[in-house]
Amino acid sequence: MEEREQWIRENAARLHRTLADPEVRAELLALLGVDDEGWRREQRLQVVRRELASLELRWKLAEDEVWEA
Hints:
Elements: H1 2-19, H2 22-32, H3 36-68
């Protein structure tokens, strides 16, 4: 099992270095049919959705505290 884990770590590091190259990343995104700006937009939307969910949860917790007081 250790040999397999080492192989995974090495290849993950190699993939990370490869994808850090903007030209490689742009080519991959083009092959996937996603442009870099669209990809960034989707990432920003995910961040905003998580933040809104967090705010909603905090709001509900605050409401519960107000009603319990």
